[in-house]
Amino acid sequence: MNSMVWPFMVETGLISYRSMTGKHLVTSTTRVQAPNFQGPLGSKSVPVGWVDDGIKRPPLPSELLAEFLIFGIFAAIASKDARVGALLGWGIVVATGLTMFGGPAKSSSPTPLGG
Asked: What is the pTM of this model?
């Protein structure tokens, strides 16, 4: 269990920082509220990637609940083998950090299925 405390706390900090800066990752084309309420419905389409919607908020309960569940499972794994649990926990932290500060990988063209 002790091997999961630090990754859990760092991940909580990353999630909180992401929420409090107002930059959110959009994984599909969606409609978000425009800060200046343009358009008939006050929304606009945004591409996949980071959107700075200016909404600075505390982390959503669903974000923290998902983190609790994931790290709870990793803690159960760590009770059997601390190295594996810690590796999984720090892997999630590294993935979140790379996504936040490096952004999603840009692809020049989609790769068709089947080669």
From this structure: 0.67
The CA–CA distances, whole Å, from 109 to 13, 49, 60, 91, 106 equal 34, 15, 33, 28, 9
Reported as a single tens digit per residue, the pLDDT across 3-22 is 899 999 999 999 998 888 87
User: Number of folded domains in the chain?
Assistant: 2
Are the CB atoms for 63 and 15 separated by under 8 Å? yes
CA atoms of 79 and 66, how far apart (whole Å): 20
User: Both 14 and 66 in a single domain?
Assistant: yes
Q: What is the pLDDT of residues 96-108, one digit of tens each?
A: 888 887 765 565 5
Asked if 17 and 65 sit in the same domain, the reply is yes
Asked if residue 41 lies in contact with residue 7, where contact means CB atoms within 8 angstroms, the answer is no
Nearest to 42 by CA among 51, 53, 52, 33: 33
Structural domain includes residue 36:
yes
Whether 37 and 9 share a structural domain: no
Domain of residue 32 covers 23-55
